[in-house]
Design goal:
CATH class of the largest domain: Alpha Beta
Largest sheet: 6 strands, mixed
Radius of gyration: 30 Å
Strand order of the largest sheet: 9-16-17-5-18-19
Number of helices: 17
Number of strands: 23
Distance between the termini: 24 Å
Shape: globular
Oligomer: single chain
Length: 589
Amino acid sequence: MSKNEEIIALVDTLKNFAPGKPLKHYITHATFPRFKNIESGTRVDFEFPLTALVGANGIGKSSLLHALWGMPYGHSTSKFWFSTDLDPIEDSNRDPQRYFYGYWHEGFGGVVETRKARIGKKQDYWEPYRWSKSDGMAPMPEGDFEGKAKDRWNPVRRKVVYINFRALFGSFDRYFYFDDDLGGGNKRDVMLRAARRLKTVKDDIKQSYKMGRRERIFENRVLKPYELTEASRILGRSYDSAHLIRHSLYPGNRGRDLSVVFKRGAEYSEAFAGSGEIAAVSAVVDVLAADEYSLILLDEPETSLHPGAQRSMLRFLLDQIKLKKHQIIISTHSSEFLTGLPHEAIKVFEDNGKTQSRILPRSSPAAALNRLGRPPQNKRRVLVEDSLAEQLVLHAAKGLDPGDRETLEVKVAPGGAESILKYLGPAAMVSGDEVFVLLDGDQKKVKEFSDPAQIAPAEHAQLDSRIKQELGFEPQYHIQGGRDEAAHKKAKIKAQLSYLAWLRKHLDFFPRQLPEHIILEAFEPTRRHSDAGSIDAKAALKKLLSGSAEIEPSAEEVTTLARFKIAEIPQDNADLTTIRECLQKWLHG
């Protein structure tokens, strides 16, 4: 199974995971009445156990991660956000910085809401805060439950793991590139001495090493086989071993540095390793060590990882959710962490025009990255029958979010409806291209196409007649099998079932029989134009477009005049709304 196939399979499995079943202590949503630069009242729903936060630099993605860090019992957002003379936090006891969130409560058997606010005697202390109707919190239920006080629910109790990939440096890089003027002589000599200490610690597997009565070794061990396996899969190379040391053996007493000595034939330390190797090992070790049902927060996990490693990291994270029922939330700018995720798992941050950030509840990967300035590489193409249909779809698309609109491409397909579904549809199904078809309403033969999953094998012999009845003709499939009649028959059945599934997902119809009907009904709703046939509808449209002019417009002039007339149809028009909902369905699944 390829990496992408593994990701698809894992996503399909995790779609069946739900709060409490099996995701214990799961945070279902968070609302921000007042928090940093996030638009007041913003609510974020965590509808999939891995959520990706996407947005420009400085838009608030890390702020949301910091809020999530502070949500569980025993944690405080003040670890990351506190008031200084340069950056004072503006709030008051009447209107403090605050958020509330819902989580699955095992004893209650449902979702409860709790609130935290920056209040209290201690500066920058975030504490649980009483229930508030004005903030929009759900009512407190009756009855006694563990963790429920008179006016509030206690915070959720769960382990939190926070990894900022931008800050994952090996000890060599940290000292060599960032530490100057630390004393102790020439930097090269200092590093040579530190390297000798590290080698002694590694070779002797010392669990303690003191300098100036300070303990300098915090962890010293060889990676376990399963840790090494996961790190190797992410990096795409095999390692004989890896030795991890957390220490403060370099000058400066900065806390815990990380050194990793790899063995791939020869041994080499992080001084010669790629920064991605250090990041992958550190993240794998921390994530694998996390308790079941942990909340894992990852800030820009793409840092230092090549695209293939990023995809492997996503596979690893999804697999850990499957195995240990974690909730994982990442901030990212990378398509590799978005492709394959359900659209409801992608939350897009954008400026609301008032120096605040709004958070869009769902997005396709292409639309999310388009908002970051990346032109969409694989646009979703919508095929229609004629130029009137094209103009109506383009006008309806103006009501979409700009990022979604940029990922759409509307084209008139030559040959009409039969040509599209007879030839282009089967070809698009085989190629896997993101092609969708919006036909005139008069082409609709059945309310919905047969679900191939509900067709018994005994009914496969009738697929020809079934499809012809539902489409009106027999499609031209791309079938392998050569001269082997049995193989050809089997391949055709497979193609027919696949095409029915494709049609159910990729084909829809205008809300009226003809595009002309939509335009006429928008401007002359009392004339019952929807009852008119094709010839009468075209004549009525020409009359509407030409007005009092006595000269009958040509076909080309009708197209031009119709474009201007369609532009006058308001975006809340019922037919445009139906078309737009269809486009949104195709964009977001």
